[in-house]
Amino acid sequence: MAHREIVADNSANGNLQEVHTAQPLKETNWEVDFGIISQMEITLIKLGGSLITDKGRPYTARPWTIRRLAKEIKRAIKGNSKLRLIIGNGGGSFPHVSATKYGTANGYSGDEGKLGFCQVQNDAATINRLCVKIFLEEGIGTISVTPNNIFLTSNAKIANFYIKNIEALLINGIIPFVYGDTLIDTVRGSCIYSCDQIMETLS
C-alpha cells in the first residue's frame, strides 16, 4: 500500500504541500480479510494548528481557512476516485492553553491533574470536530477518530494501538480525521501526542 504525506501550514503559505513518502501501515494478524488495504494508495494530509487557528488568541479558529482547505481536498478527491485519505489536524490555540496550565504532557497526579487531562482532550477534540463539521458541509465524507481511544503509551512511547477501525473506514471510502491528543500513559498517567506523531505512527 503506497503512502504519501501532505501538510498545510503557515510555512506552506496555507496551501497543501506533499512532504514525503511514508511507510505502509503495519501488518496485522486479524482474522478478518483486509487484504484490499495493501492495494490502496493512501495519502496522509495534515492541517497545521497554526494555520487553522490563531495561536495568538486562545480558542480562536479560522473557519474560512479550514473551508478553503476542504474545497481543495474535495477537488483532489474528484480528480482521483481511487484516492484514499487520512486527514489530521494540529490543535493550535485550542488545547495548548489547558495543556500548559495543567502540565498534561508530563503526566498527572491528583484530581486537578486528572481534570486537566480531560480538559485538554476536550479542547483538542473541539477544534477537530469543527474541522469535521466544515468538511461535511462541503460534502466530504469524513469522521472524527479519537486517538485517545486507539493508542496507549508507556513513558510517552506507543505501547499498543488498534487501527482496524481506521482501515475499515478507508475500505469503505470514508476519511478518518485524526488529531493531536492526550493519551493514557501506563507510566506517567498521561502524555500528549501531536498530530505529527499520530500521523507518523499511522504511516
Description:
Helices cover 36% and strands 26% of the residues. The protein is an alpha/beta fold and 203 residues long. The strands form three sheets. Strands 2-1-3-4-8-5 form a six-stranded mixed β-sheet, with helices on both faces. A two-stranded antiparallel ribbon has the order 6-7. A hairpin with an 8-residue loop joins strand 1 and strand 2. About 7% of the residues have low confidence.
Short overview:
The protein is α/β, with parallel strands linked by helices. Helix content is 36%, strand content 26%. Strand 1 and strand 2 form a beta hairpin.
List keywords for this structure.
203 residues; alpha/beta; Carbamate kinase; 6-stranded mixed β-sheet; two-stranded antiparallel sheet; 6 helices; 10 strands; 36% helix; 26% strand; Isopentenyl phosphate kinase
**What's the SSE pattern?**
EEEHHEHHEEEHEEEH
Q: Ends: how far apart?
A: 10 Å
**Average pLDDT, to the nearest integer?**
87
Query: What share of residues is helical?
Result: 25-40%
Overall number of domains: 1
Q: Count of DSSP E strands? A: 10
Low-confidence stretches: 19-33
CATH class: Alpha Beta
Q: Kindly name the structural category.
A: alpha/beta
Corresponding CATH superfamily? Acetylglutamate kinase-like
* Strand arrangement, major sheet: 2-1-3-4-8-5
Quaternary arrangement of the chains shown?
single chain
Rg estimate, integer Å: 17 Å
**Separate helix tally:** 6
Beta strand %: 25-35%
Shape: globular
CATH topology group = Carbamate kinase
Mind summarizing the main beta sheet? Answer: 6 strands, mixed
User: Architecture, according to CATH?
Assistant: 3-Layer(aba) Sandwich
Protein name: Isopentenyl phosphate kinase
Keywords: ATP-binding, Isoprene biosynthesis, Kinase, Nucleotide-binding, Transferase
Pfam families: AA_kinase
Catalytic activity: isopentenyl phosphate + ATP = isopentenyl diphosphate + ADP
